[in-house]
Amino acid sequence: MSIRSDPLDELTIPDGTTVEEHDLVTDGDVIVGGQSTVEFGVRGREVMAGERVEFGGHIEAEGDCRLDMWSEVAEDVLVGGDAYLGERARVGGQLKVAGNVDIGDDVDIDGGFEASGHIEIRNPMPTVVFLVIYLSQLLRIGEEEAAEQLASQLVDGDDDGPQPVVIPRGARVSDDAWHVSTPATVGADCRLHGNVRARSLSVGPETTVFGSLRAKDDVTVGEDVEIKGDVTTRGGDVRIGDGAHVWGDISAEDVELHEHAVVEGTIRVSGELTQIRDALGPDPAADPSDEPTETATTGDANGESDADTARDADADDEETVTVATVPDDHESREQLESELEGVIPMAGAQPEDDPGENGHGDGETATDAD
């Protein structure tokens, strides 16, 4: 990651994140940008929050927990590692820390605190200020490579560990809505409550959102996703993947809808509505014992055969359409059908000596009927 980019410029919800009984639960870290509001509890590996962040529930961190200046937690803070509370931070419940505690001036802890390690009451430098000063010093002395490595470590963390939940600066997250002004990415196998509002949206496979999706730009819904609400974009496109189920309306400029997706509501487009179909596999091998049966191959002016047209017409069923042609040595259709046992007869076909009004033989008539 480049140090010139903002690590909190996107709402990121990693794979497997769930909201359980008003708690956000993840296997990785939770990083919350300054001046954000999280109206439920948070459980993760480590929890870091910028200044003026409000939590409406409790915090449970397996590792360290750092809350910058003027941050507030409505309930208990339970920390398995070390805890850092900036100046004028407030905890509405108890603070229990398995490691060391570093507390700034004018910190309020309504339920008292316990710590197994050292307790130091002073005015610790806010995390963001410290990082800015340190990176500035590295750049000033020409250590750009070291600065880049530090920025990557801070954002990416352990490459082998789970991806963190990242809530950008100024966001508001609750059971009713996830409201951010940045792009948003929801991982696979997540379970979220509330409407999601973002600049653009991408939802990973096998995720369930109990709410609607709304964005200014594009919205992408992955495979086997369930959206219990509408999918809307003001100026972008919507793409609905294979097996997705939208329990509401879709509104966009252009919509790409997979053939196996389900939309319970109305689709409104100002541009084009496109259906995405699965590619058909190869035709089954011909059985020598069924010599009288063959796939119709009468071509048209564009070089496309009737068999290709029949396969396209039944792409939803993912099967090849086979028709029968009448050999010259048979006098009647009844005689042919009695001999071609197990072969699908032609629907509305005519004998070969009667080409019909369009001048084509039986193969094209059968294709049109399908």
Q: State the helix count.
A: 5
- Which sequence of strands runs across the widest sheet? 17-14-11-8-5-21-22-25-28-31-34-37
Give the number of DSSP strands: 38
Shape: elongated
In terms of per-residue confidence, which ranges show pLDDT below 50 for 5 or more consecutive residues? Answer: 1-6, 284-331, 343-370
Give Rg in angstroms.
31 Å
Total of domains: 3
Distance between the termini: 55 Å
Kindly state the mean pLDDT as a whole number?
77
Share of helix, binned: 10-25%
Query: What amount of the residues lies in strands?
Result: 25-35%
Structural class: alpha/beta
**Largest β sheet strand count, sense and barrel closure:** 12 strands, mixed
Task: Note down, in words, how this protein is organized.
The protein is an alpha/beta fold and 370 residues long. The chain folds into three domains: 1-169, no CATH class; 183-276, no CATH class; 288-369, no CATH class. A twelve-stranded mixed sheet has the order 17-14-11-8-5-21-22-25-28-31-34-37, with no helix packed on it. Strand 21 (172-173) and strand 22 form a beta hairpin. Helix 3 runs parallel beside helix 5 (362-369). The radius of gyration is 31 Å and the shape is elongated.
